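Researcher: Can you fold this with pyridoxal-5'-phosphate in place?
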Amino acid sequence: MSDRLHRVQARIAAATARAGRPVGSVTLVAVSKTHSADIVRQAMDAGQTVFGENRVQEADAKFPELRALLPTLRVHLIGGLQTNKARDAIRVANVIESLDRPRLADALADAADKQGRLPDLLVQVNVGDEPQKAGVPRTEADAFIRNCRSRFGAALVGLMCIPPAEGDPAPHFAWLAACAAQHGLSTVSMGMSGDYESAIAHGATHVRVGSAIFGTRPAAPGMDGA
Ligand SMILES: *Cc1c(COP(=O)(O)O)cnc(C)c1O
């Protein structure tokens, strides 16, 4: 696992350099969903500090103990989020990448008020306008981003997308980066195991890589969260 992790890190560094961007300007979010706390621990021992999970419950089961070992650990929630999980999400996440609808914004704002804690937030855009995918539709993105900005202020840090599985993701990556720039948002989370180098070429600040680091996952629900 640590060999694969280091290989991914090296490819990220090379892609960042090729894009003429500063060393270290792309953060690797190691997507550890379905993998055990032991495996995460191994990645931590190999120097990885940022992890992605798509289910709140799984993150909650895995990370509190690990956080005690590594206070700088950061957990990104990257899966579709139900409003009834907002409270737990606010409690476990450092970053919630899947803010994609007004009712979820309401639930997160409410939970954040009650807990006095607000993680960083990313608006997820359904860049391919795919019916089965989470994310705010492209045409509603501007209005939703403005709304979240006025409500969450500086906690709204960026945008996230999962482009369609078929076809070239590059135009989707370019669109998301341009949209983030237009709104003055600094974080652009895009690119997975199959396409993170392309995402970096188009301005990703965060890439979410799972199987290239941890190996293939058992077939399970969850690519897009549920
Ligand atoms: C699972 C997942 C990833 C990682 O996918 P890999 O292809 O294993 O790298 C990235 N982003 C999201 C939202 C995911 O659900």
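Model: Folded with pyridoxal-5'-phosphate in place. Residues 2-18 form the longest helix (17 residues).
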